[in-house]
Amino acid sequence: MSKINFSVKSISDVLQIESLKIPEYQRPYKWERRHIRNLFYDIREAIDRNISEYRIGSIILHNKDNENIDVVDGQQRLISISLFMYCVGEDNLPDGASNLLNGSYVGISRLHAKENYDEWRFLCGLISKEEVDVISNFMMNHCKVSVIEMPSECLSEAFQLFDSQNNRGKALEPHDLLKAYHLRAIKDESEQTVENWEKYVDDKELKLSDLFDKHLFRIRRWINGDTGLYRKRYGSELRFTERFIGDFKGVNLQNASYPYLQLYKELLENDIALPNSICMPIINGNAFFQFIEFSYEHFKNNFHENSIVEGFLSDEIKEIVNSKKSKYARNINLFTNLLATFIDRFGADQLDRETCEKVFVWAFYPRTAAKAIYNTTLANYAASGTFQKKKCQKLFQELAVSATPREFVARIDTDMLGNLTAADIINKLQEEVKR
């Protein structure tokens, strides 16, 4: 096995690497103008203080196939500095910098690259040509990075290191860490399976962070009777953070022999596609990315514009659940998540108006009985079965033990909801608006 090399290199040395490139699976270039300004003024300050060596973090390189050197971590800084060099008119742009700027950039990456190039031009226009030359020389020869060079067979180790690297770049969100974690379980060149991942990150209708935070994290906790709340010094928060990424790390089918995984193992051994469900056991590697693609499409198709669910809603209910009013947001989340779990369990073809209206009553009942709904209210109502210190139904768990759609609907105890109908809830919400 080849060695992992650790060294300290100048930016010039790194950008001279002829085969340097950004791999397709990398997340987009997202540095903003403020990051460029911070780097610019930090370097000017270092020059003023006569600092001979200025460290700007670390980068991880992967020798993919002895022909391409992939930037696993550090692309934000390297592309930004390459933009500076291009801006100041470097006659002979180093091969590595040229490769980075000539890569395949689409959408948000191209937008940020253009904006940051304009920012460099603006900042350089504030100072003299001589000072620009000083900054250029300092950036190339006195700015140093810690370089970790991984041999071709160490892609998984490269991603392990990526998990903890966050120097000067955008803070890694929990889904970034999960992406890196599950890439480690993918063999050979099958990292291609995650190319769709980034298109979900900034989707205008359903961002990947919201898919985890507002839906998957909550549903999987609530269906097991856990609120998902984390107690802090002042109150509690309901949020998917790095603290909870263990919920989605899952197991490796190759190494696990637990009875509950037997079906999945047999399907995999017989080259049969694994069934997907938003409440399924999390399985490492490709299966995880397939799970996310399934979950994304599940919510997008069933709950967004021209969705399946809308066909079963009255105009009044549709107006409420599509409302952008923040006071309804938590109740809408309850409504969406419970129906999403119903469809996941029984199928969209088992959905009907009665089910939608009963779920609507359950989800919005707290709104009619309390002046304000907080995340703690939401979580305790959904998972702990308590509201205003009174017992209420834990419908996520009732759904989990229902064998048929009819059984679930029959389990909804309308007495615990004041025997209110959907029309009653709508009237109460409308009266609230008038007051």
How would you describe this structure to a colleague?
This is DUF262 domain-containing protein. It comes from Sutcliffiella horikoshii. It is a single chain. With about 425 residues, the chain is α/β, with parallel strands linked by helices. It has 3 domains: about 5-155; about 175-305, no CATH class; about 310-435, no CATH class. Helix content is about 50%, strand content about 10%. The chain contains 19 helices and 9 strands. It has helices at about 10-15, 35-50, 75-85, 95-100, 110-125, 130-140, 155-165, 175-185, 195-200, 210-220, 260-270, 285-305, 315-320, 330-345, 355-370, 375-385, 395-400, 405-410, 420-435, and strands spanning about 5-10, 20, 55-65, 70-75, 145-150, 230, 235-240, 385, 390. The strands form 3 sheets. A 5-stranded mixed sheet has the order 1-5-3-4-2. It has a two-stranded antiparallel ribbon with strand order 6-7. Helix 2 runs parallel beside helix 5 (about 110-125), helix 10 packs across helix 14 (about 330-345) and helix 14 packs antiparallel against helix 15. The longest helix has 18 residues, at about 285-305. The protein is elongated. The model has no long low-confidence stretch (mean pLDDT about 85).
